[in-house]
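Input sequence (369 aa), recorded before submission:
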Amino acid sequence: MELGHQEIEDFNTDGPRRGLFGTGWHHIDVADGKRQGALAAYLEPALTRPNLTLRTSAQTTRLIFDGDACVGAEYVQTAEPTEVPGRTVRDTSGSATAPGTHTVRATREVIVAGGAIESPKLLLLSGIGNPDHLREFGIPVRAAVPGVGENFHNHVLTGLMAEVSQELPPPAQNLSESALFLASQPGLPAPDLQIAFVHVPFDVIVGQSHPNTVSILPGVVRPVSRGWIRLADRDPLAKPLINPNYLGDRWDLERMVQGVKIARDIFATSAFKPWYKQELQPGPGAVTDDELRTFVKQKSESYHHQAGSCRMGIDDLAVVDPELRVHGVRGLRVVDASVMPAVPSGNCHAAIVMIAERAADLIKGESRV
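Predicted structure, token format:
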């Protein structure tokens, strides 16, 4: 606020457009004083339902088709299932939980929700993707969908660290409590930079010798750079190839440098003066734009908000349609962050849950027809 940024009561709802830009406290999913996620809020309450089977230590290897209709999935039970408290894993066949390869059949449709890395991998293993890439591994083409695995992207951030002169108070709810959302230039419809504050050292190695350290994390949250997910091997248990291409576009690199400068401006405010002792990263050796470019190339990391690799649309490179159905086949949807054409500016957990809620409505609506 000292630098002229407005305070935001709620990043999500603080009036039309006003809530998009400014600084404030993060809102987090808390119930009864505990952080919540999809596991606690959705899966665990449903574990006793008779129409749900949870199978652990199992890896899906390919989708099963009858003509152009997806009718099931094949999976490998890699180990004995882990016991789930309050839930007995049902096994109607008597052998479905034994180590080895098994199949499950669908009566209506199959939903893939493996995330932006595993979902495109499974589609490719099942013959849905770029025909040239599939032929490299001798996989028969089920549907020519060249966009599978393309458009992969992520929020990207780096960390400035400052050693402080006072003992740090503990955080109240999480290590990242406050943030600044702003535009890198006037006229943008949504923030493309996020500047976060955390109570701990960004670099754990540096933090071992300087534990009384805080970090400001500038991040590019509307990246232009795009990477890809591809098969490394026909073996379904092999890890896929990932080219994230972070900062591959010059515009992303320049905005990250801009974010570093903003973080330094925040550390230089009078509000920080009673706390600030010294900058540990990037340090006095990174001053010029070229030196800062070198720093962010070496020290930028993932927000773990991977998205886009099975993107929604109606063009030739789209993978799913507006109702999340995979192009070129029937009875198959993808429901996860991979369907996002572009990751939203903010942390994307709530957006992913919204996608799942919308998919549930679509599926239930079709069931009533």
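Checked by second reader. Residues 90-94 have pLDDT under 50 and may be disordered.
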